[in-house]
Amino acid sequence: MATASKYDQIADDVLKAVGGESNVKSVTHCATRLRFQLNDRSKADKDAVEATRGVITVVEAGGQFQVVIGSTVANVYESLTNRASVTAEGGASGGLLARAIDLITSIFTPFLWVLAGSGLLKALLAVVVKADPDFATTSTYAIWFAAADAIFQFLPILLAITSAKRFKANQFTSVAIAAALIYSATIAVIPNAEGASVTLQGYAGGGQDLTFLGVPVIMVSYLSAVIPTILAVYAQSQLERLLNRVFPDALRNFFTPLVTLAVIVPLTFIVIGPISDWVGTGLSNGVNWFWGLSPVIGGAIMGAFWQVFVIFGVHWGFVPVMVQDLSTQGYSLLTGPLFAAVLAQAGAIFAVFLKTKNRDLKGVAGPAAISAFLAGITEPGIYGVTLRLKKPFIYACIGGAVGGAIAASGGSAAEGFVLPGAITLTSTMNIGNFTLQLVGTGLAILIAFVLTMTLGFKDVPNKDAAAAGAAGGAVPSEALALGAPVAGEVVPLSAVPDKVFSSGAMGEGLAVIPSEGKAYAPASGVLVTVMPHAFGIRTDTGLEVLVHVGLDTVELGGRFFTSKVAQGDRVESGQPLTEFDIEGIKAAGFNPMTVLIVTNRGAASAVVPVAEGQVRPQELVLDLVG
Q1: 533 an active-site residue?
Q2: Each residue of 287-323: b (16+ CB within 10 Å) or e?
Q3: For 30-46, what is each residue's pLDDT tens digit?
Q4: Contact 381/371 with Cβ under 8 angstroms?
Q5: pTM above the 0.90 mark?
Q6: How far apart are CA 398 and CA 345, in angstroms?
Q7: Considering only CA atoms, which of 350, 341, 340, 357 is closest in space to residue 385?
Q8: Is 548 one of the catalytic residues?
Q9: Which of 29, 315, 533, 548 is catalytic?
């Protein structure tokens, strides 16, 4: 029997923690994340997933349960799909934006690294040519350039494969459609009325009107075409479903692709292609127009918020525009400021590595700084370091804004589809002012590094130090008592109409019938659990507290709740956690009673309720006896 790899172990642990195969509706992956669609979110144990070795964090966005793995996510995904009966099919729930991003992700992700690798090869070739211009005239350069550039020329073939998988169309028919588009736009021949063969380009360029059954055809270039290919395959999928219902089994296998090709290819030439070309060109022109108005503002916005886009996964929305720009003009101005945005995070992460006293954090920050700086993979550093500490992330965004503005002011852009990093900076050598790109990126790194080193951040205490405090060291005064999480009437825990709480199985505490729809932190510490209705806080002394707003309110799926914090945040006693609609919760058939439980006493030997009747937020309600 083959030995299970570390990726198999991660896959098994993650699958178990999300509720098993039966709870997985579908799973896909992007550059760094497994993206789950779950049948029942309440069955997934977010804390258990995050505690899995090899998992950086969990992000819930766009209707997806996203498990951040890092650069080895493809290996884990392969292990997951090989070892379990889970499917990559399905779409995101949620709004139009969430579904659009999910669509783009599923289509582009499978060949993202090939695009990045090809872009890097082009960047390296640009360096060699700068050093030795004569090298560009050699056949060696020509062969390597073909290896780097071919994927962009024939991108419709790759898009056809992944789009067919997403739209559940016949992949081979999709490839035939894409091949026809490329073939027809370059060297394709069609017979004319006299039987002679002419190229479509020659036919159109020779002064003759190009028509199909008398319908005028406007020829556009389909090399590197993104939108036409995706829409053509979508149209194919719809037509195939219809044809497979119409044709009997004996004819379906060859009549369906025959009719599909005969219909979809001309339809693309006549309708889909010209409209898509107009839309794609409009997007590129729109970006260029905006940059023309103020490249500094555009660069500052992209530099400041690119990593924010990455956190929420909405950066995928820019991918089609970037690829469209690359296909129409050979570069995308949107990519110029991204080097500053990414490498500023690397600068902040490295500063944390130097400054932190926490051994675990230092162990995460070191490798994360290297991967962010060299390869442009920032998510391990963002989730494990800068966003966790908050201030370094903000410092990096400031650096990215300044550096992105400078780079954009010189018209800098990458020639290929690359992940912005130090080794791919050369992809910007031939577009715009390369000196300003270097200055902007260098300044972004410097700003993020210096701000993190000088202004600092609230460091994470070492686990052994916290444990020592819990075992008998000095206990901060905030851990000696807990305040009321909400205003209202105190109720003994035994009177709570929920056996899980009233039995004391989860810990000691009390409950409050809220009179105001606001909940506050009863103690200072780190949020280890955040759900719309429930918040787990761990203090520096090891005390663990749970604030649970309402009974069975998990079933509301976040309705009537507006969270003010995120998991991993450090909160101070009295800081707002959430706002909730008491009447809305009641109208939905749920009890808004709020429970305060001490799930881990830490250094305390007993938990004693000390309040009754009406209480105000933060009024002393639980005394912790040392």
Answers
A1: no
A2: beeebeeebbebbbbbbbbbbbebbebbbbebbbbbb
A3: 667 788 888 888 888 88
A4: yes
A5: no
A6: 10
A7: 350
A8: yes
A9: 548
